[in-house]
Amino acid sequence: MGGVGEPGRGPGPREGPAQLGATLPTFCWEQIRPHDLPGDKWLVIERRVYDISRWAQRHPGGSRLIGHHGGEDATDAFHAFHQDLSFVRKFLQPLLIGELAPEEPGQDGPQNAQLVQDFRALRQAAQDMKLFEASPTFFALVLGHILAMEVLAWLIIYLLGPGWVPSALTALILAISQSQSWCLQHDLGHTSVFRKSRWNHVAQQFVMGQLKGFSAHWWNFRHFQHHAKPNIFHKDPDVTVAPIFLLGESSVEYGRKKRRYLPYNHQHLYFFLIGPPLLTLVNFEVENLAYMLVCMQWMDLLWAASFYSRFFLSYIPFYGVRGALLLFVAVRVLESHWFVWITQINHIPKEIGHEKHRDWASSQLAATCNVEPSLFINWFSGHLNFQIEHHFFPTMPRHNYHKVAPLVKALCAKHGLSYDVKPFLTALADIVGSLKKSGNVWLEAYLHQ
């Protein structure tokens, strides 16, 4: 192939990046694909080839996030995650080592080039419609109603005393406040509120730290991987839950290898005991603290400490230490139920397995579904019922999902792709049904292998 370097050759981490203004070496996909190893990562963005092997450790989103696209075309992921592309391209320039050969397709493998082109045209149409511009009033009201609930919860105890009825009402209001805080920090983490990324990050630290007691960096580390490779084992932390639960293809693998750590054919039942009640109370609390300490996120630790100080100083005078701790546990358990059901209705019932190297639109559609909208469901879920639109355009403000939805539906219809929308109760039931199905698949493989 004329002008294309030998496999494994070309400017690499030891030879330095391509010089500005110099003729760029060209590569074919057969040369790029092997560079998906620890310490050896190349990726393609807008037909240009970048060696991120050393720089990945300094990537603001984490080395895992960018590393998940090693040896692939990351153009659509690049556009999906970054708000100010011209600013980010300055960091890419020193990493540039070449470009795709003219005869090479823009995407590797048997991907639908027309679908990729149409998706990018859809994104441009959304930009032209100004759907990536946030409404300050909308997000001010979101923050305002969260703060109002925090104050109301305290006033109930202050005015009515710490009886069972006021305490139950306070716990419920605080749980709703915490749930809505998850949604707001999620918006900020995706830089979909303010024009400047820095303002989003600072505001997210406040909401995640002071209002919730968690680390913003920890959340972003987990959540961005989920968006990059949804429902992909070992790349999406949300579905890498074995050996506690088996999902999708892991059911067959564990069954064939005769692995039985738990009675997986009953996982749809023990899910109710260790899933919704304990996720935020136990798993998230431990994982979050470990992340802050290991990664030395001291500012996040201070923000989290401010939450616990405020909470216990507010309620210990009424309940004492034990009572305040019990109130905290009650709030976390209620919040955890909300978190598990709302975040999993869109993913658990969908395809879960190993890397398929699909294009951006196809990979998001295979792993997500929507829930029928209503004013209540939109508020209750933080607009995550528009999960397909959110995964297509992570930086789009959520109040614009309903506006882009018809365009997304049209794209799916044109290419014969499933645009899955369910009633809310059906989506909840499908979580349990999916767990039961996976457990039965494991049992069948376990007994008959």
TrEMBL record:
Region described as Disordered: 1-21
TM region positions: 155-176, 267-284
Compartment annotation: Endoplasmic reticulum membrane
Pfam family, one: Cyt-b5
Pathway stated in the Swiss-Prot or TrEMBL entry: Lipid metabolism; polyunsaturated fatty acid biosynthesis
PROSITE patterns per the UniProt record, alphabetical: CYTOCHROME_B5_2 (PS50255)
InterPro entries to which the protein is assigned, alphabetical: Cyt_B5-like_heme/steroid-bd (IPR001199), Cyt_B5-like_heme/steroid_sf (IPR036400), FA_desaturase_dom (IPR005804), Fatty_acid_desaturase (IPR012171)
Annotated Gene Ontology cellular component terms: endoplasmic reticulum membrane
GO molecular function terms attached to this record: oxidoreductase activity, acting on paired donors, with oxidation of a pair of donors resulting in the reduction of molecular oxygen to two molecules of water
Membrane topology, record value: Multi-pass membrane protein
Domain Cytochrome b5 heme-binding, chain residue ranges per copy: 24-101
GO biological process: unsaturated fatty acid biosynthetic process
Alphabetical keyword list: Fatty acid biosynthesis, Fatty acid metabolism, Lipid biosynthesis, Lipid metabolism, Membrane, Transmembrane, Transmembrane helix
Biased composition annotated in UniProt, kind: Gly residues: 1-13
The keyword Isomerase is annotated on this UniProt entry: no
Keyword Nucleotide-binding carried by entry: no
Protein name: Fatty acid desaturase 3
Organism: Rousettus aegyptiacus
